[in-house]
C-alpha cells in the first residue's frame, strides 16, 4: 500500500524516579547529560492520527493541523522519516519520498510524549509501507536514537522504562482506569530545563557508584507490586514524579491544578513527565465527567483544557483495525 494511517497514543507517567546520572553515558556529569530513570509509563486513549504516504518526489514533507507544531526538519516525526531514509536508502529510492500528515489531538509541551508518539508512528508506518518486516525491538532501537520516550510509544500499554527511559519491559495491562487531564494551553514546560534544574538542585545527592544506583532503583517495587495485583487504590496512592519538585514551585498554576484535583473525589493525582499536564485517576467514566466539570467551574479559565480519557493497552497501531 502507498499510505498508512496510524493511531499514536499519548502516555502518562505513573512513576518517574530520577536515580542519578546515567553511568554508561559519555556525557556523565555534564550539565547536558542524561539521567538514569525508573519510570512506569501508561498509554492513554488520547491520541494523534498520523498518516504516511509515498509521494513521487524524493522529499520528506510534513503537514499538521496545529500551526504551533513545527512543520520542518526540526519536527521529531520529520527526523524519524529522515532516520528511516538514512537506514534504508534503497526503500526510500524505491517508494519515493514521504508525506507525513499529523492530526494533532495531544497537547504540546505537555509531558504526554506527543512528539515522540508521532515519531514512533512514522517509524512503524514506514516499516509497513516499505515492507521492511522489522521486529519490535529493531523498531525501538531505531526510535531510541531520536528520543528516550519513542521506544515506549511504539509498544505502549503499561511498561517499566529504565536507562534514560528507552529500555522497556512490558507490565500487565491495566485496563479500565479512567483519567482526567488538565493543562493550560499556553503553558509548555521544557523537558531539558526540568532535568537541568533537577540536577542543579539535587545533583549533589546522586549516587556515585553503580552499586548505590541499583539500591535506589528498588524504590519502584511498591508500584510494580500494585500493578501486578491490579490494585487501583494502591497504584493511585503510589503515584510519584521527582520532576514535580522543580516544576511545581516554578509553575504555581500547575500546582493549583494538582491541589484542586486532590480535593475532589479522585483516586490520586500527579503531574505527567516534565509537565505541564496534571492527571487524576478516577474509578468510572461518570466520576471522570463529574471531576472534569468541577475543575471547569473551579477555574473558569478559557485557556484551561480538560480531557476525559482512559488507560489503553497498546502503542502505535493501524487506524480502522
Ligand atoms: O530524550 P529526550 O529528547 O526526550 O530528552 C529531552 C531532554 O531531557 C534531554 O536533552 C535531557 O536534557 C533530558 N533528559 C534527561 N534524562 C533522561 C531523559 C531526558 O536528562 N533520561
How is this structure best described in words?
The longest helix is centred in the middle third of the chain and has 16 residues, at 114-129. Helix 1 crosses helix 2 and helix 1 (76-87) runs parallel beside helix 3 (114-129). The chain starts with a strand and ends with a strand. 44% of the residues are buried. A hairpin with a 4-residue loop joins strand 5 (158-162) and strand 6. With 321 residues, the chain is an alpha+beta fold. The chain folds into 2 domains: 3-172, 2-Layer Sandwich (Ribosomal Protein S5, domain 2); 178-310, GHMP kinase, C-terminal domain (Alpha-Beta Plaits, 2-Layer Sandwich), CATH 3.30.70. 37% of the residues lie in helices and 27% in strands. Strands 1, 2, 3, 4, 5, 6, 8 and 12 form an 8-stranded mixed beta sheet that branches. A 4-stranded antiparallel beta sheet has the order 9-10-7-11. The protein binds cytidine-5'-monophosphate (C5P).
Lay out the secondary structure.
Blueprint (H helix, E strand, L loop, with lengths): L2 E19 L13 E21 L4 E5 L11 H12 L1 H7 L1 E7 L10 H16 L6 H9 L5 H6 L2 E5 L4 E4 L7 E7 L6 H12 L7 H8 L3 H8 L3 H6 L2 E2 L2 H7 L1 H12 L4 E4 L6 E5 L2 H15 L4 E7 L6 E2 L3
Parallel strand pairs: 1-8, 3-4
Antiparallel strand pairs: 1-2, 1-12, 2-4, 2-5, 5-6, 7-10, 7-11, 9-10
Bound molecules: cytidine-5'-monophosphate.
The site of cytidine-5'-monophosphate has 11 residues, from strand 2 and helix 6.
Amino acid at each position: 500500500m502507498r499510505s498508512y494511517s496510524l493511531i499514536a497514543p499519548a502516555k502518562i507517567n505513573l512513576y518517574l524516579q530520577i536515580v542519578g546520572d546515567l553511568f554508561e553515558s559519555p556525557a556523565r556529569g555534564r550539565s547536558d547529560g542524561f539521567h538514569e530513570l525508573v519510570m512506569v509509563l501508561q498509554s492513554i486513549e488520547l491520541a494523534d492520527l498520523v498518516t504516511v504516504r509515498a509521494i513521487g518526489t524524493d522529499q520528506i514533507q510534513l503537514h499538521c493541523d496545529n500551526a504551533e507544531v513545527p512543520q520542518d526538519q526540526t519536527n521529531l516525526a520529520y527526523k524519524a522519516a529522515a532516520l528511516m531514509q538514512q537506514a534504508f536508502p534503497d526503500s526510500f529510492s524505491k517508494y519515493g519520498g514521504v508525506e507525513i500528515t499529523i492530526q494533532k489531538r495531544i497537547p504540546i509541551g505537555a509531558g504526554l510524549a506527543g512528539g515522540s508518539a508521532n515519531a514512533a508512528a512514522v517509524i512503524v508506518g514506514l516499516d509497513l509501507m516499505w515492507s521492511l518486516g522489522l521486529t519490535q525491538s529493531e523498531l525501538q532501537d531505531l526510535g531510541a536514537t531520536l528520543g528516550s520516550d519513542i521506544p515506549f510509544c511504539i509498544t505502549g500499554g503499561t511498561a517499566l522504562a529504565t536507562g534514560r527511559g528507552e529500555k522497556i519491559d512490558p507490565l500487565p495491562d491495566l485496563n479500565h482506569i479512567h483519567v482526567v487531564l488538565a493543562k493550560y494551553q499556553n503553558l509548555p514546560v521544557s523537558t531539558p530545563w526540568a532535568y537541568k534544574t533537577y540536577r542543579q538542585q539535587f545533583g549533589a545527592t546522586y549516587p556515585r557508584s553503580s552499586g548505590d544506583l541499583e539500591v535506589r532503583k528498588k524504590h519502584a517495587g511498591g508500584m510494580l507490586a500494585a500493578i501486578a495485583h491490579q490494585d487501583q487504590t494502591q497504584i493511585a496512592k503510589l503515584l510519584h514524579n521527582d520532576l514535580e519538585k522543580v516544576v511545581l514551585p516554578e509553575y504555581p498554576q500547575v500546582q493549583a491544578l494538582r491541589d484542586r484535583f486532590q480535593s475532589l473525589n479522585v483516586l490520586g493525582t500527579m503531574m505527567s513527565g516534565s509537565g505541564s499536564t496534571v492527571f487524576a485517576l478516577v474509578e468510572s467514566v461518570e466520576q471522570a465527567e463529574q471531576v472534569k466539570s468541577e475543575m471547569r467551574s473551579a477555574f473558569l479559565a478559557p485557556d484551561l483544557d480538560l480531557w476525559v480519557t482512559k488507560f489503553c493497552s497498546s502503542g502505535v497501531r493501524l487506524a480502522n483495525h
